[in-house]
Amino acid sequence: MMAFGLIALIAGAASALMFASIVSGALISLVLVCLAPLPLMLAAIAWGPLCGAIGGLAAMLVIGGALSMPLALGYGLAIALPAWWLGHLAMLGRSVTGGTTVADAAAVEVEWYPLGRILLWIAALATLLTAGSLLSLGTDASAIGDAMRRGFARIFSLVGDTTVTESDPRVSLMVAVTPVLVAASQMTTLTLNLWLAAKVAAVSGKLHRPWPDLSSTSLPPMTLVALCVALAFSFSGGMAGILGVIVTTVLMVAYALIGLAVLHTITRDLANRGFWLAAAYAIIFMFSVSLVLLTALGLADAVFGFRERYLRSRQPPPLPTP
């Protein structure tokens, strides 16, 4: 029990230090803040959700004492709570009885929480975090837009040699793309942290479940309907339009991740598969337009079932009946 508490405190202290590094102003602190959920996720996955919860509370107390209580509350809502919940979902499972005969009744298997639903939870958390960060600037769309215009005009004025007004086209462009960039970064950061935490737990022998087949990840069918509804709302004005843009962005990122799963599936039989996957990832990181193609691949798989057809075509023909 003492070791359990010590692990929780270490995870909380590490997460708090990573989060508090932002006050240093160093560029590396941005990376550390993005990775702040990682220790808590690792604790929740390897030692249970209670360990992650204790670590999160300890981190909040450290941040509240060293910096301020409002900042500690923000840390708890934006980092500790999502890290604890995703770590809990990653290890959530239920026992199912395998076999249909009496002899097989003792065979008990564990059905783990579907990866596609975890991805939807990540999208929901990314939506809430993005909306919360924007609502901190104002209570309606006009107030949020004005606050962002003033902020970006001040930033461009500091960077350049001339004073930039709020009507500058660059300012208007940043105001338009900021909800998209924040939502996409939240979605990517949460997904990356969860994958890293699970990978560290697996390497250290603390992942108390089989490593999931990531290439089989699929979203529930109604996700496509939600994406269409959010896309329609994104063309409206006001807060409904902003929320529509945020939800559309996070679901697009989710389908881009499904596109990666499709890519891993259809390249299984290729010679030098590692080389081709490495080349594909290099293209994705170098050219942002490839993310659009990846999202289109994920959407096409949701509609036409590419992976299912590919795997079915690779199955051996049925044996002839006597």
From TrEMBL:
InterPro entries registered for this protein in UniProt: DUF2232
Coiled coil: none
Ranges that cross the membrane: 59-85, 118-139, 173-198, 218-235, 242-263, 275-304
Keyword Transmembrane helix in annotation: yes
Domain of life assignment: Bacteria
Protein keywords: Membrane, Transmembrane, Transmembrane helix
Keyword Oxidoreductase: no
Protein name: DUF2232 domain-containing protein
Provenance organism: Bradyrhizobium arachidis
